[in-house]
Design a protein that fits this description.
Strand order of the largest sheet: 5-6-7
Largest sheet: 3 strands, antiparallel
Distance between the termini: 88 Å
Structural class: alpha+beta
Strand content: 15-25%
Oligomer: single chain
Number of helices: 8
Helix content: 25-40%
CATH class of the largest domain: Alpha Beta
Number of domains: 2
Shape: elongated
Order of helices and strands: EEHEEHEEEHEHEEHHHH
């Protein structure tokens, strides 16, 4: 707050000697502490991570909790239920207060919904997939082990089954935003993982190139031979594999991809080859 004083016959704005603000030295000390916590105490992929496409590290929940502990910030939550029929949605405001003085330091807001891709779909077995209505199922192309592209069978999630998870995510987003605001650490970190584009946190490896098609893994010398795929496992996975062939993937390419992880019997290979559309070449060696 400022006071109006008279000096030399002219009005001037003067600040009281104990203005409630940080000096440059205190501000520098604060920023140094945030950086030291990151460099000396936090662990990559535990407290923060590097996500493709982001210039700054992404702050994870454990990292936000460490900063809150260091600066003695207590968190309180106001939850607004915005759910409607067949749809779960929460908006959360997290208020940070000082543990000793109970002074309000700042707030952060977070929201989560069952309509988000992360919550709307879940992986399904072939039996669940076949039993689901057409509008409640899909095949999602994703990155498999070694960079191979695979098709994942998915069905829509019942919103009630994930309501608690949705509330937790909204609360976590709110707390992360509050900690970043209160500690002024946005120059070191960006928002939590859930606020990154879906392709960077689901269906791709973190190091997968975003602008390139999935590549087959290169054979490595001395690689341990994968074990054989038992018939029960084959029967469970074959619906998704067959969809890939019917969508145009050559059977031999599919066999090669599968055998990077598990060996197929001759009978299983022949069954996959038989999925090829009539008249299509199988590329099988004579």
């Amino acid at each position: 707050m400022t006071a109006l004083t008279e000096h030399g016959g002219a009005a001037a704005l003067a600040e009281p000697p104990n203005a409630n603000r940080m000096s440059l030295a205190e501000l520098q000390q604060h920023l140094n502490l945030v950086q030291n916590i990151k460099d000396q105490l936090m662990k990559q992929d535990v407290h923060y991570g590097h996500i493709a496409g982001s210039q700054k590290p992404t702050l994870f929940k454990p990292g936000a909790e460490m900063l809150a502990l260091a600066f003695r910030i207590a968190d309180g939550y106001d939850i607004e239920d915005l759910s409607s029929h067949g749809h779960v949605r929460y908006r959360v405001i997290c208020t940070g207060t000082h543990l000793a003085t109970h002074e309000v330091l700042g707030v952060g807001m977070g929201e989560a919904s069952s309509e988000e891709e992360f919550f709307a779909w879940r992986d399904a077995s072939a039996r669940e997939f076949d039993a689901a209505p057409e509008e409640d199922r899909r095949e999602r192309q994703a990155w498999g082990d070694g960079g191979a592209d695979v098709f994942v069978l998915q069905v829509r999630t019942n919103p009630a089954d994930v309501a608690n998870s949705i509330l937790k995510v909204a609360s976590k987003r709110a707390k992360t935003a509050m900690v970043l605001n209160v500690t002024a650490s946005s120059d070191c970190f960006t928002q939590d993982l859930e606020d990154m584009p879906l392709a960077r946190r689901s269906g791709q490896r973190r190091d997968a190139p975003e602008d390139k098609a999935p590549q087959k893994p290169a054979a490595s010398a001395g690689r341990t031979q994968p074990g054989f795929c038992d018939q029960a496992t084959f029967d469970r996975k074959k619906a998704g594999w067959r969809k890939a062939v019917e969508s145009g993937k050559p059977p031999q390419d599919l066999i090669t991809m599968i055998q990077t992880k598990e060996q197929l019997s001759d009978e299983q290979k022949r069954e996959i080859q038989a999925w090829a559309p009539t008249g299509a070449t199988t590329n099988e060696a004579a």
